[in-house]
Amino acid sequence: MGIKLINIIIKIGHPLAGFIINLGSMFRLLFEIIINILYPFKKFNLIIKEIYFCGVLSIIIISVSGWFVGMVLALQGYNVLQRFGSTGMVGSMVALSLLRELGPVLSAILFASRAGSGMTAEIGLMKATEQLDAMDVMAISPIKRIIAPKFIGGIFSVPILACLFNASGIIGGYFVSVIILKLDSGMFWSQMQSTVSFHNDIINGIIKSLVFGIAITLIAVFQGFMAKPTAEGVSRATTKTVVHSALVVLALDFVLTAFMF
Amino acid sequence: MRRITIDFLVGVFVLIGFAAIAFLTIQVANHSGMMSNNYKSYTLYANFNNIGSLNISAPVKVSGFNVGRVSNITLNQKTYQAQVTLQINDNYKFSSDSSAQILTTGLLGEQYIGLQSGADSEYLKDGDTISITSSALVLEDLIGKFMTNMSNK
Lengths: 261, 153
What we know:
The complex is a heterodimer of chains A (261) and B (153). With 261 residues, chain A is an all-alpha fold.
């Protein structure tokens, strides 16, 4: 009886302790990055390269998926709103659902799978091939040189990508509702303009995506940094980055929505 | 890849970001945020017995055409009427015997103010009050009246 109980406690306690330790070392990494946050700005080229890697190369996937999400929203909205004879609301429905929820969340999840996994794999492989240790030996801090630029580049890219997602989604919605379904274009824009407010919807959406960007890049960098230095370890870390980012983004989205709206 | 190419592409990326934000601000959002009143306007007042669920920034329309917005709603402490402040585009003038109604788009849509021009040759000036008003149709009141009428029969 006593041994069984102890076994149960161990079974629950061991993963729990591991989770708490992971959380702690993630925050340790975050503070180390914050302390060294100014260094990459002296070597601006490092940040530019990261923005190129995770921002510029994500433009196509973000804008195409935004376009399709906007088209689907317009089509579904049209089908439902048609019953109430208020198809003029399609525009504002598309814009509000994109700006408030879908834009920041979907672009963050796409970013995690497109750029976050790449970040983890790069850092993990550097660790597996002992490049990070070599840097340490040469008295170059890998946090300054590798991690902080990735962090800044990621945080900078995500809000821009979210805005791009929103804009192309709204244009996709316009395409479906005005060009395919022949709704009135003036109605589409004016209804949108009368319901969307700059401060409430657009700024809050950008703040959301900024928070998501911080969370995703922190997770990606942390998983890469903590990866076991083997091929399997790197692949595990990459998977973990995508899964954890998606979960954290969705959970944070709920919290932020509760605060904002 | 050469450094200058990367710089160029990152610059394009940032420009696209700004363009997206500008598109969202100008085309999608109403102009209350950064650009309040991009047209010159004058102020009119109208007193209503009941404004229903009229909001600030609701449109002011003349025969369906948007000519301004509701900028403020206050309660007149003496008459206990709601005083609605209207910002009307400077290009449009209305005769001094114009009337204002609170109307609803569709059965459940948002409420707006409909202006109806009169025949007087004098125009309403900045700060004038529209004297002829009719209140919002409150659906609950209407149903209540209907019910009492039914029970009297």
